[in-house]
Amino acid sequence: MGVLLYYPTVNPPTEVLHQALLYWDGIASVVPRDPQVYDAVVGEELKRLEERELYRPLAFSEESLDVLDPLGRAGPSWRSGQASTVLMEELRRLAARPDPPRPTTPAEAVLYTSKISYPVEAALRAMGLATSDGWGTLNVSREVQALIVGVLAREFAHHPDVAFFPYTDNETAYRNSLRPASPAVRALAWEVELGRLLPVPAPGTPTADVLAFRDRYPDERRRLMRALHRLLGDLRRDYEHPADVFAQLRHELSEALEDYRAAGRSSRTAWVHRSVTVSVALAAAASGALLLPDLGWLLGTVGGYALNVATREIRPLREAREEHEFSYLHRVRGGLV
Questions:
Q1: Minimal CA–CA distance to 187: which of 87, 332, 286?
Q2: Whole-prediction pTM value?
Q3: pLDDT tens digits along 226-267
Q4: Which residues are CB-neighbours of 270 under 8 A, at least 6 positions away?
């Protein structure tokens, strides 16, 4: 089912953690390379999940951070130019505001220097958007933190062996991870609201109970996510006929959803619905199709719930995996009624 790649911080909210344990093979987040810093910042719950191989700590290498530097080790590249252009434009925009997001004391947020490249660190200092505490961290605002890690998230979801899916509860980070570098270099995507199909345990539910549900109902969980990702994958490829795609898969998705609901009813867990939006990058040929951004409509209904879809423009990735170029936004306080 793939691994949920949480950003922009190391430790996800409990609700996102539970979402990962229910609907994914596990959860990952980006951590500092220094083992001592890792031990200090990674929560005990994540460490316990790591022992069960349900949590993957990811650390950027010096080479991988070249994506933030248009003049990286291998020279200028399409991939590094796209990400670094978006990042530097947004940093300059923040710094030029009448009320730029300056670092505060105590620190509102931090960036570990092992998570960013030196050119980015230098730019942050020069623009007055970061200060250093001398311990391998930069003192920044939450806005700056969300911007930088958001831009990185989609770039580093590409992996030759593991299907990572960028997932955040920070809308600013989500939008920055997708924003095109320029009107001339952009791609089209669907945005689909899935929150009604992916309930989460109510606040206060122990993680042990979520793990017990995960172990008891593996088939129901996998069937639902496979049906959803098959729908999203087919929408990506057959972008000119979304209604036909939905019609063909509606029965499979409805049955998977009903089986999962039955499993939920048999447990003693209380469930809630949160807004979960997924962005699905369309096939490259869609750029010439008769699709316009910022249009939305009802795709159809499944299990009594409406499934809405909209178009938007995003930043293309040169190295995206063809089968799952998806990004998720989870609104922790965005309850659905």
A1: 286
A2: 0.81
A3: 999 898 888 887 877 788 888 899 999 999 999 999 999 998
A4: 201, 202, 205
